[in-house]
Design a protein that fits this description.
The protein is mainly beta and about 500 residues long. Among the domains are: about 50 residues, no CATH class; about 80 residues, Sandwich (Immunoglobulin-like), CATH 2.60.40. About 5% of the residues lie in helices and about 15% in strands. The chain has 3 helices and 16 strands. It has a 3-stranded antiparallel beta sheet. It has a 3-stranded antiparallel beta sheet with strand order 12-15-14, with no helix packed on it. A two-stranded antiparallel ribbon has the order 1-2. A hairpin with a 2-residue loop joins strand 1 and strand 2. The protein is elongated and about 165 Å long.
Length: about 500
């Protein structure tokens, strides 16, 4: 063997021997291809200043470049543990980081899966987010396709992403934020986003608009469906024994001013601004301390439409003011004043029901007056007693009478005895005379006594210069008393 070749082999043998660990320290070093059963972990220490400490490459397209496997069954066992020991790392530091260089949209930066019912990826933090995801794929200056966090579930009741906050009033299971786009986005055949709460006062899904200006919505629901009964927002009380005050959708406005609304419904066409329906309860319920409980506005359709199959189509506990037409095809119960410019009934015309309406105006007076009438025939002595209902005098006072003789002979009739004990007596100057009578009374029940109508009242300061019927005085609709055109958010026009 040449001397130069022999010298090279000796140098190589010495170098390999220098790399081999001492026999006394075998348990503390990693042996490739062997089982390391020592209780102390094996430490690989590098000191790279410009790149990774170690690089593992596998050219087999179907096998991982690095696989870490733990066989422990105790709680807290890890297949891979990434640890960042510094207590003050710089931005974007990470204990474990995954990156996928694929440009075709396939694959994941980090992929976690679980063969059982556990979590594919689990994140926990003492103070910050448990899992933070950021999509940075740029399409012409717009971030459109990258997913910050992507979760997929294949089976029923599974979850693509699970976020849980175990304690803390303001803790968040999932915190999604976006500077210009959508904080949390969900899509699915049954529900895009589903939220549930298991506490008495908890909220299943909560959306908020924290800016003090603008017309953004805390929660916005929309649908592109053209099918009947499609809903932008649908609220459901699932309990069949829900108690008083429960509501499918509840809206509340904390404003101390009279503007705004608890629930605002608008329709751009000729449809319905707010449509409430109930098979046994209340279709639309509105309450307010100083503004409007329910306010509906429509440029050409119906501002508020209420329907009930067997109960009240509308129930108003308080005063009701109408500055425009109200069409009622059913019962309306008003526990207060009903103020209107005019009133009438409208029915199908008895002679032409398919082609015409028949309308009559109400009989009105400033006295809370009730009208009663009837026909009676006097007896052989010319007397007749008219008996009123038992509640008649409990409801009415200040009676007025009108008597008219009915028939072909002339006779005279007078009120012989005025109303007492809910009856009055008529006498004619001839026997067997038919008399048409009419009695009016003025209400004096407790409500009427406490809410007596004043024939003339001044307009409130806010209504000065406004009119119930501004068109009659050459003014515009905006000069109507109480007129407030809803401010529809610009994104909804």
């Amino acid at each position: 063997m040449p001397t130069r070749t022999l010298r090279r082999l000796c140098l190589l043998s010495a170098f390999v021997a220098a790399l081999a660990p001492a026999a006394s320290s075998q348990a503390a070093n990693l042996q490739l291809g062997a089982v390391n059963n020592a209780n102390t972990p094996t430490t690989l220490t590098g000191n790279s200043s410009g790149g990774p400490e170690f690089i593992v490459v596998n050219t087999n397209a179907s096998q991982p470049a690095l696989k870490a496997q733990a066989t422990g069954t105790n709680a807290g066992a890890f297949g891979v543990l990434g640890l960042l020991t510094t207590v003050a790392p710089v931005a974007n530091s990470a204990a474990v980081r995954g990156q996928n260089n694929a440009t075709n949209g396939s694959g994941y930066g980090v992929w976690g899966s679980h063969a059982g019912s556990g979590s594919g990826v689990y994140g926990a933090s003492a103070d910050g987010p448990g899992v933070t995801g950021r999509g940075t794929h740029d399409y012409g200056g717009r971030f459109l396709g990258g997913n910050g966090v992507f979760g997929s579930a294949l089976f029923r009741d599974g979850y693509g992403v699970v976020g849980r906050a175990d304690s803390g009033v303001l803790a968040h299971g999932v915190d999604g934020r976006s500077a210009t786009g959508v904080g949390v986005y969900g899509s699915g055949p049954l529900a895009g986003v589903e939220g549930t709460s298991q506490t008495a006062d908890g909220i299943g899904v909560r959306g908020g608009h924290t800016a003090t200006t603008g017309t953004g919505a805390g929660v916005r629901g929309y649908t592109n469906s053209v099918s009947p009964n499609a809903y932008g927002v649908y609220g459901l009380v699932t309990s069949s024994s829900a108690n008083t005050g429960s509501a499918g959708v509840y809206g509340h406005n904390n404003s101390i001013f009279s503007t705004g609304a608890g629930v605002l419904g608008t329709h751009s066409g000729t449809g319905v601004g707010v449509d409430g329906a109930s098979s046994g309860g209340i279709g639309v319920y509105g309450a307010t301390l100083g503004g409007k409980g329910v306010y509906g506005f429509a440029t050409s359709g119906t501002g508020v439409y209420a329907h009930s199959g067997s109960g009240e189509a509308g129930y108003f506990d308080g005063n009701v003011h109408m500055s425009d037409n109200l069409h009622v095809n059913g019962n309306v119960d008003v526990g207060g004043f009903l103020s209107k410019s005019a009133g009438s009934f409208r029915i199908d015309h008895p002679l032409y029901p398919a082609r015409k309406y028949l309308q009559h105006s109400f009989v009105e007076s400033p006295d809370m007056k009730n009208v009663y009438d009837g026909i009676v025939t006097t007896d052989g002595r010319g007397f007749a007693t008219v008996t009123m209902p038992r509640w008649f005098q409990a409801l009415n006072k200040s009676f007025r009478y009108q008597l008219t003789i009915v028939g072909r002979s002339f006779a005279q009739a007078i009120v012989w005895r005025e109303l007492a004990h809910n009856r009055f007596t008529i006498r004619t100057n001839a026997p067997q005379v038919k008399v048409s009578w009419q009695v009016t009374g003025i209400r004096h029940d407790p409500y009427a006594n406490d809410h007596r109508i004043k024939a003339e009242v001044p307009k409130a300061a806010a209504d000065q210069g406004k009119f119930v019927y501004p068109q009659g005085y050459g003014r515009s609709k905006r000069d109507t008393v109480g007129y407030e055109r809803p401010q529809i958010p610009s994104g909804e026009r």
